[in-house]
Amino acid sequence: IELEVEVGTRFLKEAARACGWQTSEVEGLLVGLTAPATPDYCERIAERAGIPASAIKVSVHKACDSSVGGLQLALNPQGSLSQHLKQNLAGRLHGKKVLVGGIEGLSRFMHDTRDTNALQLFGNGAGVIGVIPGETMKFLVGVTHDVFDDEGVLAVRMVYPHSRQRRSGQSM
């Protein structure tokens, strides 16, 4: 746990530094991961990195899609992920300095496996970027729809307002 907290802390500090920000300026943190090392992982790494307690902190758990899910929450006020929240997260983060990414430590789940092929697929990795929603990065999709089938497989449909794709009920 201590190693994963230290790794997460370093990623947050370096991402902020790469943007020319102090961690004390960060107003939002969205971290994607399959399963956190501890229930308060996002809060721990934010505190250690020097991100203010007042910053919005969200831990997104969607397996491989977690970091992209976090980015969608930060940028898309109409997204299906946002619809499950009691607040418009993208609206609250608009114009603020936000760190978004994924910090994955899957090796802790794989340490007892004998399947060497699985070890190559399910490892550790991380990446965090800094964005200012609405300024440095904008959401280009007009409509999104996430759906899980009976077996838990995720299907995502996106319609881009600048493309010639048809929205349901509309003709080209």
What does this protein look like?
There is one protein chain. The protein is globular. Helix content is 33%, strand content 22%. α1 (2-19) packs across α2 (41-49). The mean pLDDT is 80. With 172 residues, the chain is an alpha/beta fold.
Short description:
With about 170 residues, the protein is of the alpha/beta class.
Biggest β-sheet description: 4 strands, mixed
Mean pLDDT across all amino acids: 80
Alpha-beta classification: alpha/beta
Sheet with most strands: strand arrangement: 2-1-3-4
Chart the SSEs and their pairings:
Blueprint: H1 2-19, E1 28-32, H2 41-49, E2 56-60, H3 66-75, H4 80-83, H5 89-93, E3 98-105, H6 107-110, H7 116-121, E4 124-131, E5 143-148, E6 154-159
Parallel strand pairs: 1-2, 1-3
Antiparallel strand pairs: 3-4, 5-6
Helix pairs in contact: 1-2
